[in-house]
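user: Kindly work through both lines:
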Amino acid sequence: MSGLPPVTAPALAETLDALPGRLRKKVDDAVTRAAAWPVSTADGQVTVAVDESTTVTLVLTGGVVRTGADARCSCLLAPNCLHRVAVLALAPVHDGLDDEAEPGEPPAAAATETSGADGAPSAAAGGSAPGDGGSAPGDGRNGTSGRPRAASAGTPLGQAAATAADAAEAGGGATVAVTPRQREAADGLWRAGAAVLAAGTSGSGLVLRTALLRAVHEGRANGLHRAAAAGTRVAAGLQALREAQPQFRLAELTDDLRELLTVSHRLRAGDLPAEQSADLLGVARRGYDPQAGLRLYGLCTVPVVAESGYAGTATYVADRDGRLWTVTDVAPGGADRAARSGDTVVALGEAGLTHRELTRAGMIVSGGTASASGRLGAGKSVRAVRAGGAAWTESPLRALWEQPLDEQVARAFAALAEPVGDRAAGSDLVFLTVRLAGAATGDAVLAETADGAPVLLTVADDHPELAYRDNLRLLGTAPGLELLVVGRPDPGRRATVQALSIGLTPGAGDGLRLPQAWSGHADLGYDRLHRSQLMSGKPVAAVAARPPATGDPALQLLRRHLERVVSGGRAVHALADDQTRRLRRARLDLGAHLLGELAAAARCRPRDPFGRLTGDDAEGFTRAWLAAAVYEQHATSALTHATWLPRG
């Protein structure tokens, strides 16, 4: 159903709570039927025609349905009817964070790896928004304050955020107190996540999703922004699966659920170590600090598609010292908005450059502001004029490829382990010089680095509106072609890079002929390569390179078990075969122990003397799953990182 306005989580929860128990069992079927109801807008109201005699009218305040009373049905059962719930369940959820954002800045809840980048997170915020991730040789913070600002300093939440930041700066074993309301909100997020895990995606209907959104709302209201962002992504994943959206990925939902449970578990435990408090609490708004005059050189432009419903573009630029910054244009939308936003004008001063033009030009900025992560602000005081750019083979961009590969990979893996909003711009990127070896399965391309190590270039985002897949398919037909690559390493696969942009190596000949206007490089998400640009007249020799192994089979077995729980719930895993012996044969004894604990917890259900199931909040089962999921994440990341290290 299109044309519905955003609705707040409390409004959806209010209408669901009003339903009698006999109707709650029918709510998911009602939502399915409601998808075909026509929507019309007139006089600031949205009307949904259920049938010839029944309509649901939505009253908007600031373009949003804010309370359950704003949804009015004309049927005899109103207001305790299914029609209101079904309509609100299909509407996008309004998080309330984008009302006061800087131009082009998504709220923290939108932060996620780019969808399709397995991460995406994030390319955007939570997600990886490329605007928050990145690779930054140089001083990292550039003298800006790293203090997050969750709210105005005069508000209780603002004072709490400032206290957390002050304690984190002080260090020395100090702790930050978690207030009773924050602990209660964290416990609500934990219980909502545990309910989703126990039921699985197959059993998580509107009732569980609404309970999760209610917990997200309470968490955000009490300053638990990182946990709330993870909960938002889980709810969005459940909705995407229900609507059979092609971009749904069970692996991404599993990672988001692990993040939600990990953070909420740490928060509900009590006081936090000072150095971890700011990361665990998160921020609603990033602080922007003044910057001295910046001379910027465009590097590349990347589409952003966040799981939380935000999309747009992020352009990486470098200053004279080689530090990377990002200029973003992210707003509510999907992959179609990301595909269009590359041609929108950059919201910095009056330079009049689009993002795709900036990536091949330069800019001089005065009066600018930037967040600690390197995202440039677009306030009224910013002045910017167009300037000349630099080729990838020229200073200061050339230095990005001159850094040793092992140092680049270490920096990128360290950044990928951090919350997206804390990553310095570009710190999760690697800059490679490769020679293509041919196509691989899944529209990937085999290549080898300058040191002769095999590497797999994969699609960063598989939305059909973006050009990634078509471009990699074409590059797979050009063995022997030498390229410069900007990419993001995949922490779950050996020697695998999500290719974002490619350029021509100096002295590599004319194997790839790019238009002069592209200035020697192509952004794979936007610039569509054509077969005529590959110079096939001169034969090239294929490179004898094997595709890198995808990962450790034993850890992949553990990962399949974890995803099986997310898909089928506790009952499915209770019937699963115990395969701990395979993990022990691989000398992963801790993983075998955790998998055994998970299987035992799934089967253990307390019963009363008459054999009936008693109350079980799935606490033990959720803890066992979370322990195994955290182990798998760190073990896979460590193993993958090790495959990049030089041998000998």
User: Anything to note?
Assistant: The chain has a mean pLDDT of 81. The CA atoms of residues 186 and 546 lie 47 Å apart. The radius of gyration is 25 Å.
